[in-house]
User: Fold these one by one.
Assistant:
Number 1:
Amino acid sequence: EIVLTQSPGTLSLSPGERATLSCRASQSVSGSYLAWYQQKPGQAPRLLIYAASSRATGIPDRFSGSGSGTDFTLTISRLEPEDFAVYYCKVYGTSLFGQGTKLEIK
Amino acid sequence: QVQLVQSGSELKKPGASVKVSCKTSGYTFTTYAMNWVRQAPGQGLEWMGWINTNTGNPTYAQGFTGRFVFSLDTSVSTAYLEISSLKAEDTAIYYCAKDKYYAAFDPWGQGTLVTVSS
């Protein structure tokens, strides 16, 4: 089974800064099969990006996804206070999500 | 708009069974598959599998065979997750999530907390 490793585990940044989150797969995957989610405390996850780089409905354009093969990136261009949360990646056909990156306010 | 509304929290004893419902609205239920995801307390997300809402055929991920059953009632646009022989380690929030694309689930239900304790 494909294993997804997210880094860093925790990212401390200030509002207005740029965030770069990584998701590495243990074997090559089709970019069409990768999605990113955001989860805030006490809430269900929310789809941000699908097919590696397509924004889901209603997602601000400061969120972008990129990558191919085994390395994928979620970028938040300018952090807003509401962006501080946990982010997960997921690949089609695997039961595991990545272990998550916690984005916290510095 | 598309909505998935799940049943309320459950407290069960070890060995009992529980059935979680996920009532949908705002779209044609049989057009999109339904996924189930588990989140243990303070832990990450684990995809349990999915059910074809057109045929009723379920697919279970590794680790979710045997005691876990996905089912449907298309007459009320509702999906169900039943867990039998509950164990303490089944304590978690269970989410339903509508299929959108490969690995892309959107939207999600609000989650159902199942607590297994004697």
Number 2:
Amino acid sequence: EAQVTQNPRYLITVTGKKLTVTCSQNMNHEYMSWYRQDPGLGLRQIYYSMNVEVTDKGDVPEGYKVSRKEKRNFPLILESPSPNQTSLYFCASSPRTFYEQYFGPGTRLTVT
Amino acid sequence: GIQVEQSPPDLILQEGANSTLRCNFSDSVNNLQWFHQNPWGQLINLFYIPSGTKQNGRLSATTVATERYSLLYISSSQTTDSGVYFCAVLYNNNDMRFGAGTRLTVKP
């Protein structure tokens, strides 16, 4: 089954404790992206990757890191999480840049 | 940066009614997509539609890029159509911006 998976689905953590949210797709897609969704602010792009070892900043990259060492995986890293990073995070993939995107189920992160 | 405005912000329909959702954007875009977020939070791509008209069952979309708007039509609405509908644009070739969404409630 074609899908994008994210883990964990829910996470409560404390300020400053490094964490990684994993994202994996099994469709051999070149393009992958991370978004955060916040009430009143909608969906905003954090980082995207057009292929292996090619990543770039989206609208709100501050406080986040990504890597794309393999085509299928695109982890989101929060080196020192802060409460303003409490949000719902989505990973997405598509065959090429901004083509039909497939979204993961979302990761709800709370930073206290 | 580019502004993406969706209207109406909220829409309540009776099952079986038709509706039109609008997405206006303030500058030239490379591409446009429509998404549906169901009440459980799942995001699903509906249309990739940089220009022209596409149809998929009861849903269709039209983008007039020269006039900077896109429309999403929902015919014979069903309760399963409830959720939030987003448009998103690609501009400057790599930058993406979402609209704030239209929250649709379809009552049985």
